[in-house]
Specification:
The chain contains twelve helices and no strands. It is mainly α. 76% of the residues lie in helices and 0% in strands. The radius of gyration is 20 Å and the shape is globular.
Length: 290
Amino acid sequence: MITLAIAASLLIGILLGILGGGGSMLTVPILVYLAGQDTKQAITTSLFVVGVTSIAGLISHARAGRVRWRTGTLFGLAGMAGAYAGGRVAAYIPDTVLLVAFALMMLATAAAMLRGPRKAEKQAQGELPLHRLLLQGLVVGAVTGILGAGGGFLIVPALALLAGLPMGIAIGTSLLVIAMNSFAGLAGHISGAHLDWNLALAVTAAAVLGSLIGGRYAGRIPQHTLRTGFGWFVVAMGLFVLSRQTGPAALAAFPAIAAWALIQRRRARRTENPSAAGVVAPSPEPATRH
């Protein structure tokens, strides 16, 4: 099973390289269900793995100009404070509660990604205001520290939907924030959990290789495809973790989520293209002669 966990770690890196997130969501279940670690040990290990892997993936995105350094640095600094505090708090939360909260957060984030940006969000331009940037970074950092997730599954939507960054730039920028948050969260966890360094380094090596592969393809995938793929990946992982903690009945939510996503996409298309919904735009009135 350890060999399988290391092999699966390659996918962690690919997801981080392409999507800017998802790696930590996959790392925790892999370490719990394949490597046999307890939840808190898996969270601590995942923070180290994802932090190092994010730095490796960041390099290729930076070379391609897909990193917004100011936004990422400010978001990350606020996130580091939240991540350290969250890591200290997590020691007092039961493992089952941590994993259920982890799954529910993934499903909520997936809903935002599959819904797509609202009209106002699409018009967002420039940098996010400083106070909102710091507040969102603090919240994401706290979640990172508590749940052991690098935060990409929250950072990418925040940067894409709220800050108005193109999806490709949001992904590249998120890797900078993920690395900062992960190491701050690790500092909060390390005193309360034993880290198996042999396993951590083996998983990290495989994940770094995957991130280099994923980074080469990130800029070649259409924005809509990235957003949709990211959202459905998070749905699948969220339902899997939730079903392991609450029973297979949780999987019954998948048809409802799929139907909701389909309705939201149709509404978005009708808003963008009124003629597709049978609405004919009024023709301009002829100019009045004087």
